[in-house]
Amino acid sequence: MSRIGKKPIPVPDKVAVTIDKQHLTVNGPKGQLAIDIHPDMKVTQEDGVVSVERPTDERRHRALHGLTRALVANMVQGVSEGFRKSLTIEGVGYTSELRGTDLVMKLGYSHEIVVNPPENIAFTVADRGRTIHVDGIDKQVVGQIAANIRELRPPEPYLGKGVRYSDEIIRRKAGKTGK
Question: Is the residue at 179 inside a domain?
């Protein structure tokens, strides 16, 4: 039995889960998310707990079991608490700021880079433009937007300049003079 798949998902008081055949909708204080469940998986809700069951022990059913449970748990957490990814900007003259809801970054290029947030995503800038927080209710979208921002100027190994995740460790190289 899948260790992740068999864990029940507790639903907070503020969150409402609606199961309509293979369509699952989660409403909460931060918004609404919906997903289509694979036809082989069975999702049930009883006494404020959502559980996922699989029909057989086939390899693909075991994989879908854990995946489905993780997706539903992330939806419940997203609409109740939300998700956050933090990025740090390193480098002389590298900075960011908010203009309305748009994120404007100066990353050593001849132009400013403007990132428009998609729906249900919010940017916040802290530490005098050196830290960027990406907040949202969908874990996958938050991670993808953070990865897109990091890709604009990935950290380089010699001086460590660039955009990196706040918990990321950059392996530094010695350069020409180091042996």
Answer: no
Query: What is residue 145's predicted lDDT score, i.e. its pLDDT?
Result: 97
In sequence order, the β-bridge partners of residue 136 are 83, 121
Give the pLDDT confidence of 53-109 residue by residue, as tens digits: 999 999 999 999 999 999 999 999 999 999 999 999 999 999 999 999 999 999 999
Residues 98 and 61 in one domain: no
Does residue 172 lie within any of the structural domains?
no
pTM for this entry: 0.90
Give the amino acid at 179.
Answer: K
Q: Indicate if 25 and 54 belong to the same structural domain.
A: yes
Instruction: Please indicate, yes or no, whether residues 18 and 56 belong to a single structural domain of this protein.
Output: yes
- Between CA 155 and CA 4 the distance in angstroms is 34
| Host domain of residue 91 | 83-165
3 is a domain residue: no
Contacts within 8 Å (CB) and 24+ apart, 94-101:
94/153, 94/161, 94/162, 94/163, 95/128, 95/129, 95/130, 96/125, 96/129, 96/130, 96/132, 97/125, 97/129, 98/123, 98/124, 98/125
User: What is the count of structural domains for the chain?
Assistant: 2
Average pLDDT over residues 26-54: 95
CA distance 19 to 172: 50
**C-alpha to C-alpha distance for 31 and 48, rounded to whole angstroms:** 19
